[in-house]
Write a structure and sequence with these properties.
Helices cover 70% and strands 2% of the residues. By secondary structure, it is an all-alpha fold.
């Protein structure tokens, strides 16, 4: 079975999935499941209560603990000085990405799987739960896992060697946020998206999966840069177009979102992808989209999106507020200022340009 996995995932399995550790996790799951089974037997619907308790624990194990493990998978190697050795291996950036996603959270996934029999016991003992609801819950959890793990890997890929512990905390927070997002959705509540009525749980699940794929693409791009692989320049503009299209699906009820979040994504890309003088010298020596600093392509996409939204005549529906139709242009002006100020700080070798941006961004909002 290990041979069928990416090499990096196999390495994690040999290190993390030792028989003694897995046996301890299995024994703990038996004790936890039996304790909850005994406690839930005193309630009105013991089967449903047991199932919900197990699903709650499984979600926390996977989304919080598993995401924190993924978030340290690359940052800890950078801190220990072993990440550079990956260039000497024949693994591609895609194999490394999949290996980290599948291997780093292996103990969390095994612990959640060890609790699955107790969840099935709860389903069998419940008169209210059906296969449709169980499939709905675990489909939502699976899509949330894609987002939590991919976002955590993106955090780890872009973190430097000084932020190993911070990356673990950030991964845990990402997982906890996704857990709250997943846990608050109940079947039957509709969401209007481009005029179609979609079940809220299904919409959140598919949104998590889509955003997770984008986060995985960003992590792969950063890993590919470390491995000196050629990488395309269109990922950030494509993601910004996706953000505009996604948010415009909600219509005029979100006047700030359709112009604000794409610019935040562009500014974040500029912060985590420095463009010092050497980057511009490379572009001047060989002008091409591949040598252009990453944030420039994102800035062009954000500017084009803001102008498109403005000239399409999308108007926010907020009673009592006027002038909101100019928000795309206002955000474009303020964030352009911030992006060029950040670039100016880096070209002049300012000590902490990111801190300067944190200080100046709120002043214009």
């Amino acid at each position: 079975m290990i041979a069928a996995l990416p090499p990096e995932a196999g390495r994690y399995l040999m290190i993390e999935a030792r028989p003694a550790r897995l046996g301890l996790i299995a024994a703990t799951s038996v004790i936890v499941g039996a304790s909850f089974y005994q406690a839930c037997s005193l309630l009105g619907d013991p089967g449903g209560s047991l199932y919900r308790a197990m699903l709650w624990i499984q979600s926390l194990l996977i989304l919080a603990y598993g995401a924190s493990r993924v978030a340290t998978s690359i940052s800890s190697e950078r801190a220990e000085g072993t990440w550079e050795l990956q260039r000497l291996t024949p693994q591609s950036s895609a194999e490394l990405m999949l290996g980290k996603l599948l291997g780093a959270p292996v103990t969390a996934l095994f612990a959640a799987a060890a609790l699955l029999p107790w969840a099935l016991v709860g389903v069998l003992k419940s008169a209210e739960l059906g296969l449709a609801r169980v499939g709905y819950d675990y489909f939502l959890l699976a899509c949330g896992t894609v987002l939590a793990f991919s976002a955590a890997l993106m955090v780890s890929a872009f973190a430097d060697k000084r932020t190993g512990g911070s990356a673990a905390v950030a991964g845990g927070f990402v997982g906890f946020f996704v857990w709250k997002l997943v846990a608050l959705n109940e079947p039957g509540r509709p969401i209007e998206f481009y005029g179609a009525s979609i079940d809220a749980g299904h919409f959140v699940a598919l949104s998590c999966a889509a955003l997770g794929l984008w986060a995985a693409a960003a992590a792969k791009w950063r890993i590919a840069r470390d491995l000196l692989e050629p990488s395309g320049w269109g990922r950030l503009p494509a993601f910004i177009v996706f953000l505009y299209a996604y948010q415009l699906g909600f219509g005029a009820r979100t006047p700030y979102a359709y112009s604000f979040l794409p610019w935040i994504a562009c500014l974040s890309a500029a912060v985590v992808n420095p463009a010092p003088r050497e980057s511009w010298r490379m572009f001047y020596a060989r002008p091409a989209p591949e040598t252009l600093p990453v944030w420039v392509a994102g800035w062009v996409a954000c500017l084009a999106g803001a102008l498109t939204v403005f000239f399409l005549g999308v108007r926010p529906d907020v009673p009592g507020l006027i002038g909101l139709e100019r928000l795309p242009l206002l955000f474009a002006a303020f964030f352009t200022r911030d992006l060029f100020f950040l670039q100016w700080c880096r070209l002049t070798n300012s000590r902490r340009p990111e801190a300067s941006i944190v200080a100046t961004v709120p002043s214009g909002r």
